[in-house]
DNA sequence: CGCCCTGTGTGATCTGGGTCACTGTACTTC
DNA sequence: GAAGTACAGTGACCCAGATCACACAGGGCG
């Protein structure tokens, strides 16, 4: 599948000319499940549009802790690759990992400015991407600040359900603990509590969210 | 003082035409010390440029908790007013408070897009503002996530010193506790510890940061 | 001067959640 | 089917930080 076809499929609201320009200059990159896309401490040289698969975006702490922030799904752009990219900068401090085989279009940064000026739909897309990531980040800030772990866990599970599009979540307790920067035992206990409250059922290797 | 004069003083890198356009459409707003500028739950209708004074920007939790995020100083723009503004949106969930008598230029949102297209210096300014606030927010996230309170307090004090431009910080322990979403007693104890480490001297109503 | 009010110091206690040390249970591989 | 290897459950313990309950100091003001 070529760049234009991907763009048609996941970015249908882009003008034709915009799609052509992107296609002419971008490179299509395949990422296999488990692979890391952005490494902490690495420069950006391109903006990324996700067209296939599912990526998880993490914030990395200094001691190698990883904290899950959000998913990138087809049709999404990595706001960070736009933002941090805009000028040379020491370290990105974020990390993206593909959890499925994925495809991203890499748009060289130099193109950004002219696309912004030439195409209204690109301008709005970029601004909207900024806006929504910014807001997401704000959400994260006050979850971490103001909410206890049990509440954060519930929100996390809801997120997963939405992003994965299924009430069966293929997650181990250990993974959840990593994503929330907590520990397995604590997550196990909290999950058990939620099970008792009939909000979910625990199985081996997956969790079933009950509706309601 | 009129808008052009303010712009000349604090935004000298703007093109002349840009300054004129802004001056022609913005309104100059005076805010007195202690006044709140943005209320949680309120829509934005303009982007703000700070030209005088000092504003503190808070994130508000659901139960009325306030968490200090950063200062807005002359020459700064409120990234949030750009971001959230870009489309009607339920609630801002952030709050700005003037700690000195301040002046801001309010630029109507409709102007944004044409300014972006017409003026390179405006485009870079906006992108750079996004970038730096985004990064600040990321810093905040991992401070809160990965650092203990004593370390966060040190960072906070450094911030204050930089933003206020003086090693005498006119802050009560209670204020600091509010800003860090902690409690007075804990802050008092930690400050005492820092005093014992000769990093600062505690006085009534102000804290003196020792160099080094 | 005594009164009050704001800011500060300090101990006692409580609790969420992290850590340690296990046990138990499925599933895989040979 | 035995052994090894993820995953999951559970108790005991610890600690940062919150909360409570004070006591006290300085500064204004009648």
TrEMBL record, chains A, B:
Family matches, as SMART domains: HTH_CRP (SM00419)
Query: What is a single molecular function from GO for this protein?
Result: DNA-binding transcription factor activity
CDD domains assigned to the protein according to its UniProt record, in alphabetical order? CAP_ED
What Pfam families does the annotation carry? cNMP_binding (PF00027), HTH_Crp_2 (PF13545)
* Domain HTH crp-type positions: 147-212
* InterPro entries associated with the record: cNMP-bd_dom (IPR000595), cNMP-bd_dom_sf (IPR018490), Env_Response_Regulators (IPR050397), HTH_CRP (IPR012318), RmlC-like_jellyroll (IPR014710), WH-like_DNA-bd_sf (IPR036388), WH_DNA-bd_sf (IPR036390)
Q: Which residues form the Cyclic nucleotide-binding domain?
A: 10-92
UniProt keyword terms in alphabetical order: DNA-binding, Transcription, Transcription regulation
* Annotated Gene Ontology cellular component terms: cytosol
Which named protein is this?
A: Cyclic nucleotide-binding domain-containing protein
Q: Give the organism the record lists.
A: Chitinophaga tropicalis
